[in-house]
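Service request form, structural biology core

Requester: graduate student, group of Dr. S.
Request type: structure prediction, single chain
Budget code: on file
Notes: please return the result as C-alpha cells.

Sequence provided:
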Amino acid sequence: MNINYNNDFKMLKLFIIFIVLEISSNQICQEGISNCLSCNPITNLCGKCDKDIYEPDDKGGCQLSKKCEIGKNHCLECSEETNLCSKCEEGYFYDEIGRCSYTDNCIASERGKCIICKDNYILIGNEIQICKYLNSEDFKNCHNISLANGLCEACEEGYFLNEGDKKCTKTEYCYESSFGICQRCSYFYYLNKKEDICVLQKENFYNCKESLDGTVCDSCNDNFYLSEDRKCSNTNYCLESSNYYCKKCISGYFLTEKNNVCTDTENCANGKEDLGICIECKNGFVLDFKDGKCKSNIEDNEYKYCEIAKGNCIKCLEGYYLSEDNKCSITENCSEVENGNCIACSDNYYLGLDKKCTNVEHCIYSDNLYRCEECEDNYCYNMNDNICSLAEGKLKDCKSSEYGLICKTCKNDFYLNQSDYTCKSNSNPNFYKCSKLNIYNICTECLNGYYLGKKYHNCSSINGCAKEENNTHCLECDENYCLNDKTGKCEPNDKIENEKKKFFYKCNNTNKEGTACENCLIGYILNDQGLCIDESHCIEKNGEGNCSKCEEEGKSIYCLNNIFGCISSFYINCLECNNILDFNNCTKCIEGYKIGPKGQCIEII
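Core staff response, request fulfilled:
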C-alpha cells in the first residue's frame, strides 16, 4: 500500500489553519482600546500592551500582569502572596489594584496619575492631582470647592469666607482661622479675642492686631510696636504715641529727630527702625561707630568737626578739612589748627581774618580758595584777575570791580551810584543801608541783614516791611505779611504757625494790643473773633449761615475749615481741613481718596 505523505501533510496544515482562523474569528482587538498598543494581524489578539503591568489576554485585549518586578513602575517591594507591588518609591503610593500612583488616598490611577479617590476624598488639581479629605478643616462649612486649587470659593449661610486662608468662620472680616476660630483679621480690623469678632481700627486701635478684652490693644500689626500707652506706633521702645508716631520714649531711650525712632543713643537724629540703633547724630555731634554713641564734635577735643570710625577721626564733617596736624578746620590748605581755627596756611596761601586760606594776597574774607570776598582796607577786589589792588580814584571805597576799572559793589555804609559807578555814603536816610541804586536813584539792593521793601524801596532790618520809621518800627508791611501794631514787626500771613498767632492769617494789620486782626486783605471778611475768613469760594451754607461746602476746581483747590471758611488747600485732594493748626492732617478727602498715615489724602487702590 502506497501512502502519499505529501498530500496528508498538506491536508493537516490546512486543517490547523482552519481551526486557528475559526478560533480567532471570535477575537476582537483594537489598538488604543483596553490598554492595547498594537494588534497581531494573524491572531487578531493584542500583541503589545501599555506599561509593563499589563499583558495580552485571550479576548483580544490586555489584562493586569501578575508579574511584579522590583524597579519597574516605581515599585520597591513585591508581595509573595498576590505578586502585586506592596511598596512604592518615595512620593508614590500603593493603590488597591497593585499600581504605584503619586497621589495618597487614591484607589485608581492611570499613567502615574490618580483618577479615583477614596470615599470622602475629592480629587484636586490639573497637572498634579491630590486627594483631599472632604471633612478637613479647610472645607469646614464650605459650600463650593474649587477643583482647580482645592480652596473654598463660597461658604454656607451664616459663615464668611476668609480673605487670606479661604476658610469659613462665623467671624466677619477674618483673614486667617484655625479650627473655626479667627486668628487674624483683615486689613483695617483688629481681633477682639474675648468676643471672637473683628472690629474696625479707630481711635486708640489704629494698626492694632488683637485685643484680649476689647478695651486696649495687646499686639500690633507687622512693623508696628505697642507703646506703654497701649497704642501702636512704628517705633519700638515708645512710651507715648499719636497718629502712629512716637512722641516720647521709655526711660533710657531717646527720640530721633528725623524718623521718630527710639534709640539708647542720646543726641541721635536718625535711627534704623528695625534695629533701634543710631545711624546719624544731631548737628554738633558725630557717630562713634565703635560704641554707637553720639560724641560732641564742637568741643575742643579729638572729635571736633570729625566723622568718627572705630573711635578715630579719619574724616572731617562736610565743609571741614583735615589739616597737616590731623585736626579738622573749616579752612582748606590749612597747615596748623588751634581750637578748630586755622592759624597758619600752606605755602603760597594767605590767612584772612575769616581764618580761611586763599591764594589771593591782601584778602581778609574769601568764599573759596581762588576768589576773594573782601580785601583789606584801601584794597578793591578785581573779579577778573582775582587780585586785591589799591582802591584809588573812582575805586575809592569800592569793594569789587571789573578789570580794576568799573566798581560793581561798595563797602559797608556805602552804596553804588550806577550813574557814574562811584561809591557814596548811605548815611542819607533815603538810602539807609542801601548797597545799590539804579539810574533812577531807587534802591534795588540792601546790605546783608537788611530787607528791601517791595513797595517803598527802603532798607529795613524788619523782614517783610515795606515802609518803616527810624528803622525800629514798621508802618506798612509787604504782601504776605501782617503788621503787628504792638511790636512793629511783620508777621507771615499766608499760614498759621500756632494757635496763638492764628489772627495773622490773611490779616493786613492787627490791633494795638496785637491780639486780633483789625483789617483783612482784599477778599477776606473780619469776623467777631478778630479772624479773617474767606466767603468768596463758598458755594453752600448751613442754617446758621456758616459755610458748609467750598468751590471745587480740579482736585479741590479749596478746603473747608470750620474757623476760616474756604482756604487755599494745604492738602492735595482735601475737602475739609478743620484741623488747620496741624499742617499734617486733613479731615476729609475727595471721593476716591482716604486719609493716609501722615494725615494726607492718598488714593484708594
